[in-house]
Amino acid sequence: MSRIGVLICDDSALMRRALRKIIESDPDLYVAGTARDGEDAVAKARELQPDVITMDINMPAMDGLTALQIIVDEGIAPVLMVSSLTQDGAVATFEALALGAFDYISKPGGTVSHSMGPVSIELIRKLKAATRKGTLKKLARKGLDMRRASTRSRERPRRRRGSASRGPGFKAVAIGASTGGPKTIFEVLPFLPADLNAAVFMVQHMPPTFTRSFAKRIDANCHFPCVEAEPGMTVEPGKIYLAKGGYHMTLFKKLTGKVVLRTTTRPKHQFMPSVDVMMKSVLDVFGSDAIGVLMTGMGQDGAEAMVEITKAGGMTIAESEESAIVYGMPREAIERGGARIVVPSWEIADEIVKAIEN
């Protein structure tokens, strides 16, 4: 296997050195070159043809978003954004993902970080994941066009009988995503109808300072409201509840039958929020009226809960390799038998609607 060449683009010499140190610590990676601003990044990308690029957002001359757009349009290499953990950083990061960035890494110390150590493992994992076959093509796709273009027929598996419904009179859709999710989710949620008779619960792995901005972005692009989960919120159909970064999102059913949200830091988990924790809580309250959806992402968070939902008689939908930017989490669910339906992202909304109506 050939080593992966990385182009580093950052206007800070300190950041360039910090990123170089992390990259060179892994034998599978090497620094193909460095760039000081967006113009330099585009020129070096064209010249060096790296396997992957790290891109700062705020730079003089040409900013990272402009450089990203050029690199994406020319199909040179996947781009991993290096963003600050601020509200402005979150907004710019989501713009980058919409433009076709593979994913992002947050600087722990702000604009110029002297402490990149805490994210070094994540950086290396994402750099490697970005270079997998087919990534550039998946990043460049247009979700709406792909949904309309997909006419493949498939046999729908019959739903097994499970435990009787014990939910509050409407169904629940539990969605989990990680790497690639902030882009791919807009190939699903905007295509759910306004009169959806279900509450939607979503976990997207991201920092605490990002989830509020992400909830607002979802809210602005969907037919029904999206809110960042807060403890004590009453669960209602026709609403999306996005888990807050740094907290698990769980449900509690009161004696009156009303379901409310809880946010907690327990159990301890690699991810906060965790897809598994959220999905299992949804299953506990909604039983066979729970619909699990697992999408793009590294690792296996959510796979165990998908299996439990399947065994309980709920519907489970996993994103297929055809569309998944990172085919990790959905593959785990599929291989464990936790996916009744496997479809590309642009067909997931239709399958959710069918599962709610059945």
Helix content: 25-40%
Structural class: alpha/beta
- Helix-strand sequence: EHEHEHEHEHHHEHEHEEEEHEHEHEH
Rg of Cα set: 20 Å
Compute the number of helices: 13
| Low-confidence region ranges | 143-165
CATH class category name of the largest domain: Alpha Beta
CATH fold-level label of the largest domain = Rossmann fold
For the record, give the distance between the C-alpha atoms at the N and C termini, rounded to a whole number: 48 Å
| Secondary-structure arrangement, i.e. CATH architecture of the largest domain | 3-Layer(aba) Sandwich
Total beta strands:
14
**Could you state the CATH homologous superfamily of the largest domain?**
Methylesterase CheB, C-terminal domain
Query: Main beta sheet: strand number and arrangement?
Result: 7 strands, parallel
Instruction: Quickly count the domains.
Output: 2
The spatial strand order of the largest sheet comes to 8-9-7-6-12-13-14
Shape verdict: elongated
Strand residue percentage: 15-25%
Write down the overall mean pLDDT. 90
